[in-house]
Every structure is written in structure tokens, then in C-alpha cells.
């Protein structure tokens, strides 16, 4: 993936853009897992009418994922709840 605008944005905001080898999903297992869940739990259940509709559906799913969806790896709490409990 190469984009002059994207690379410029990263540079301006001091973001390191890490590239992984192609066909190496294990290098990025956490996001691969999230993309799988997004596909199964959101995209597959909805008919996306246009870009804006798709954007809103995904935005809603991300909020659900972080605020309500329980995660076995987080003691069966949502990520937000896990963080709240961890800070006490």
C-alpha cells in the first residue's frame, strides 16, 4: 500500500506506518480477527446501500464491539468495561 497523502499524514502526525509481508496474516492477527468478526457480525447481516450507509454501519459496529460485545479474552467483559476495571 502506497499513498503519498497517507504517508504525508503519518509523517505530519509522527505515526509509524508498519508494513507486514503480503500473505502473512499471522503478523497482524489481532486486526485480522477483528476484520473476520466485522464481516460475520455486521457486513454479512446487512445490505449496504452506499458508502455512507456502510460507513455508518461499521461505525455502529465498532461502538458495539468496544462498549457492549463481551470478549472471552477480557474476562467476558467489553473492552471499555475491561479498561474501566483495570484503572481502579
Automatic annotation (TrEMBL):
Cite a single GO MF annotation: nucleic acid binding
Q: Which residues form the Integrase catalytic domain?
A: 1-87
Q: Which InterPro entries match?
A: Integrase_cat-core, RNaseH-like_sf, RNaseH_sf, Transposase_IS3/IS150/IS904
Pfam families on file: rve_3 (PF13683)
From what superkingdom does this record's organism come? Bacteria
Sorted alphabetically, the Gene Ontology BP terms of this entry are: DNA integration
Name of protein: Integrase core domain-containing protein
Q: Which organism is it from?
A: Clostridium acidisoli DSM 12555
